[in-house]
Amino acid sequence: MEVEEVWRGRWENCAHPLCHQYMLSAFKKKSAVVLAADFFKTEDLCAMINSVGEYITAIKTHVDMLEDFEQSSWIEVVKTAKKYDLLIFEDRKFADIGRVSKFQMAGLYDIRTWADIVTSHSISGPDIVDGIAASWDEVERVGGVLLLAQMSSRGNLLSENYSNNTIEIGLSSPHVLGFIGNGSSPEDISKLRSRVGEGKLIWTPGVNLSAEEGDLGQRYGHPSEAIKSGSDGIIIGSGIIHSEEPKAVAESYANVSWNALLER
Q: How far is CA 157 from CA 73, 116, 186, in A?
């Protein structure tokens, strides 16, 4: 079986080079799992990557959560991720004007030098995407933006009209890799896929093999249903990192996601 067969024509339709990089990694690892690696210590983050790296395709970070951030120690995180051929996805959720977002990509954390993907809201308009892309251009790197079209948290304010406008911005930009969808609702994912078409990725948080409500209003859906409804990548955090056997659980998520891709 070839990678193009697994993705049922998506390979040709997704123009962004990171789309292809992700699809190829998912094909090689037989996994559509993105690890939400929310840690407070860089040592713990590296240890988790070493534990589950063979079963995941990318790591989602919140670099500003780290209590011990230093550029020298963060380099070790980047090296560890690349050892397992992982995309690094900084879930920064930019929301300011383009000019400010460009500077925020640099600054203390210098996100532009190590992140392959970042998230962004569209609340400030399309210039935010151009500002983020300009920051990558300054360091001669190719990156991709995932726009938040939906959220899985209870009571979020991303209305259908807002989502539609976000999709329009994303579809018109070569810098937008894809969209973040609501993994807790297969119906929402299916609607998003029908609006987005086949040219962009959809990654979904809010999925768990135990589809129960989590802390502080987080809702969950089953990963298999998310994939079959149109998600290309399931973002898993507590389901893996808080388990007693993260490696075995990561493998389970990988198997579930891969089988769902084959059945889609």
A: 37, 27, 19
How many beta carbons lie within 10 A of that of residue 23, not counting itself?
22
Cα 191 to Cα 52: distance, rounded to the nearest angstrom: 32
pLDDT digits (tens, 9 = 90+) for 48-67: 999 999 999 999 999 999 99
Q: What is the pTM of this model?
A: 0.94
Residues catalogued as catalytic: 93
- The reply to whether 34 falls in a domain is yes
User: Phi/psi class of residue 155: alpha, beta or left (left: φ > 0; alpha: ψ in -120 to 50)?
Assistant: left
220-247 pLDDT tens trace: 789 999 999 999 999 999 999 999 999 9
- E strands within the chain? 33-36, 58-61, 87-94, 117-120, 144-148, 176-180, 201-204, 233-236
Q: For residue 63, what are the β-bridge partners?
A: none
Q: How many folded domains does the chain comprise?
A: 1
CATH number at residue 113: 3.20.20.70
